[in-house]
Amino acid sequence: MRILHLIKHCDHGHGNVHFAVDLACAQARRGHEVLFASGGGYYAPLLDSEGVRRAEIRQESRLLSVLRNLAALVRLCWRFKPDVIHAHMMSSAVFGYFASKLTGAPLVTTMHNSFDGHSGLMRLGRIVVAVSSAERDFLLTRGFSPDQVVVILNGPNGSPRENFRPTIEPALATPSIATVCGLHQRKGVHDLIAAFAEVLRDFPDWRLNIIGEGPDREKLEALARELGVSQSTHFLGSIFAPKKLLQRSDIFVMASYAEPFGLAIAEARAAGCAIVATDVGGIPELLAYGKAGQLVEPGHPEQIAAALRKLMQDENALRDWRLRSKSGADYFNVDRVAEDYDKVYAKLKRH
């Protein structure tokens, strides 16, 4: 099958980019002809090494640039003759829609950020993939057609990104509570820091390791100083492949206020971390509705603190939750995701 992936860029630090790169590489390994059309970026050499063809199609907002790049995309489709066009961002969905109409190749979109005000553009796809059942339910409340939306759970484990350009990893202070996320309000890192401040006085040897970057980093560092936990809270910045750091962590926390899926939780499960996460979006499904990790209400740091305290004070409980987290984590792997998308593509091709 010939598959054209369409996305704005292939830079690190964006969940939808990580997903698109993983899927394209897995599909190439499965014998598909895969073309990745984007403005380029960090993962371009990885795509090359995995046998994924690349084309430069920029998705700029100026009218003349839009028309020029749309024309380039249509020419690319005529040459490549894709069986399916797969768009991963909202601007990509618009470009892909017009290319689909002009060339006849069906458009698939994957909804990664339903909380975004412009995410309704993803309904331009003939098929819209929701990354969790909760996401599908939410999209139906927004007027998406039940016949249009299918569910394919994400799975980042076994990603080729794990071994791409290995770098020197920072030392990880242990015992460790870790989180991996963008540092902005939606991720709730301020609640995690507040919870950590509540338990640290009783468990002074523990450390909080925050992996990620974002616009709120200075504000969060100031909060850690204000709450008196700055010496025990380490901002490690963006780590290209946090797998090994997670394997050395004891507890993983995701304190998000909205989370369609939560790729980092799937990675933490594979690493065998005990998990505490908010009961939002696709997180409950990802944690087997509380069997593989503890669920708390968003915006309630006292609940995070209570869950952490139980794990930190009881080695048996910590060991049990680590085993429960890892059990079944194999499902969230890239190869299974590629297989599920093959079924969606094949159905479109038959039609």
Automatic annotation (TrEMBL):
Organism from which the protein derives: Methylocapsa polymorpha
Domain Glycosyl transferase family: 175-322
Domain Glycosyltransferase subfamily 4-like N-terminal: 19-155
Annotated InterPro entries: Glyco_trans_1, Glyco_trans_4-like_N
Full protein name: Glycosyltransferase family 4 protein
Alphabetically ordered keywords of this record: Glycosyltransferase, Transferase
Enzyme class: transferase
The enzyme's E.C. designation: 2.4.-.-
GO MF terms held by the record: glycosyltransferase activity
